[in-house]
Write a structure and sequence with these properties.
The chain is mainly α and about 55 residues long. The chain is about 70% helix and about 0% strand. It has a single domain, classed as Orthogonal Bundle (Arc Repressor Mutant, subunit A), CATH 1.10.10. The longest helix has 19 residues, at about 5-20.
Length: about 55
């Protein structure tokens, strides 16, 4: 596994966990992660995250 693949898998798991904790409220999740909501949407698309995981 490459470093990028590992980083992506960890980041995906972390975002999914936070989304689940916050009932898939993307705005609140972005706020708790200290990122812009639009950036989180782009990251979710890049990592293949959609509602229902």
């Amino acid at each position: 596994m490459s470093l990028k693949a590992f980083r992506d898998s960890v980041e995906r798991a972390f975002i999914l966990q936070r989304l689940s904790e916050l009932n898939w409220n993307v705005s609140k999740t972005a706020e708790t992660l200290d990122v812009e909501r639009t950036h989180l949407h782009k990251k979710m698309k890049l990592l293949g995250i959609a509602r229902g995981g």
